């Protein structure tokens, strides 16, 4: 059976290193004969705003939502998550976090009742056996005084470290590529080769 990979990408500039990373990752996945779906959030003009009627809240001790159905664009993304085996997130670090459009994707798509549940343990089982790999280019150096940059540790904790803590997805790694704006093309190519090797190792 073919392995299906979902690439969720956020960067507005096609000339960016992030976009070069997207191209290298997707081409390598296809070389591995994976069935690849790319969700380029900026190209899609994805709406990152979670409306009040779509968010969960508590009434009389119960989690409820105003709307009984998820919006059509959210349902589309949910279907992609369910149908794919491997998730690859590619997004830069801006202001020590993910771009707003990626955060909005998570807010709107990774909803209670679909992605996780405090009431129904079977929800998590829909994601059992799925894997995730994260790539984050950043301007920050990744090693300070011989240790991982504390910002990197913090960003990993609040992104890949918490996203799947309530379901069964296995996070393979969260790879950070540092000092990207200050590096030569040859140095950036080494990053791309590293990403390529990590995809081949899946």
From TrEMBL:
PANTHER family, A to Z: NAD P H OXIDOREDUCTASE-RELATED, NAD(P)H DEHYDROGENASE [QUINONE] 1 ISOFORM 1
Superkingdom: Bacteria
UniProt-recorded name of the protein: Flavoprotein
Every Flavodoxin-like fold domain range: 4-197
Keywords assigned by UniProt, alphabetized: Oxidoreductase
SUPFAM superfamilies in the record: Flavoproteins
Keyword Oxidoreductase: yes
Keyword Nucleus listed: no
Record family assignment: Belongs to the NAD(P)H dehydrogenase (quinone) family.
């Amino acid at each position: 059976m073919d392995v299906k990979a979902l690439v969720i990408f956020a960067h507005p500039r096609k000339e960016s290193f992030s976009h070069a990373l997207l191209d290298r990752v997707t081409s390598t996945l296809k070389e591995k004969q994976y069935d690849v779906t790319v969700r380029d959030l900026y190209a899609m003009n994805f709406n990152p705003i979670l409306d009040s009627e779509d968010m969960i809240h508590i009434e009389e001790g119960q989690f409820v939502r105003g709307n009984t159905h998820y919006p059509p664009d959210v349902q589309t993304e949910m279907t992609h998550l369910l149908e794919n085996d491997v998730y690859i997130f590619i997004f830069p670090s801006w202001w020590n976090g993910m771009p707003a459009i990626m955060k909005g994707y998570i807010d709107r798509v990774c909803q209670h009742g679909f992605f996780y549940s405090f009431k129904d343990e079977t929800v998590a089982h829909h994601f059992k056996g799925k894997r995730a790999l994260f790539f984050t280019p950043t301007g920050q150096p990744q090693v300070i005084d011989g240790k991982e940059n504390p910002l990197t540790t913090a960003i990993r904790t609040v992104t890949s470290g918490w996203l799947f803590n309530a379901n069964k997805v296995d996070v393979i790694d969260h790879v950070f590529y540092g000092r990207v704006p200050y590096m030569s093309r040859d140095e950036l190519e080494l990053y791309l080769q590293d990403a390529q090797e990590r995809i081949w190792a899946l």
